[in-house]
Amino acid sequence: MQVLKRVRPIGPVLAAVVLAFGLIVAPAGAQEGPSGSNPTAQSVNEQQLLQELNKIQGRITIPDAKAATLEQPRGQDFRSFHEGALPWIGGVAVLGMLLVLALFYFIRGRIRTRSQEAGVKVVRFNALERLTHWVTATAFIVLAITGLNFVFGKRLLMPLIGPDAFSAWSQWAKYAHDFFSWAFMLGILVMAVLWVWDNLPDRYDGHWLRVGGGFFDTSNRTHPPAARFNAGQKLIFWSVIIGGIALSVSGLFMLFPFAYADVNGMQLAQTIHAVVGVLMVAVIIAHIYIGTFGMEGAYQAMGSGTVDLNWAKEHHSVWVEKQGAKTEPSQPAAPPTPAE
Amino acid sequence: MARMKFLCDADRCIECNACVTACKNEHDVPWGINRRRVVTINDGKPGERSVSMACMHCTDAPCAAVCPVNCFYTTADAVVLHSKDLCIGCGYCFYACPFGAPQYPRTSNFGSRGKMDKCTFCAGGPEADSTEVEYAKYGANRLAEGKLPLCAEMCSTKSLLAGDGEIIAAIYKERVTQRGYGSGAWGWQTAYRETITV
Question: What is the dotted CATH code of the domain comprising B4-192?
Answer without folding.
Answer: 3.30.70.20
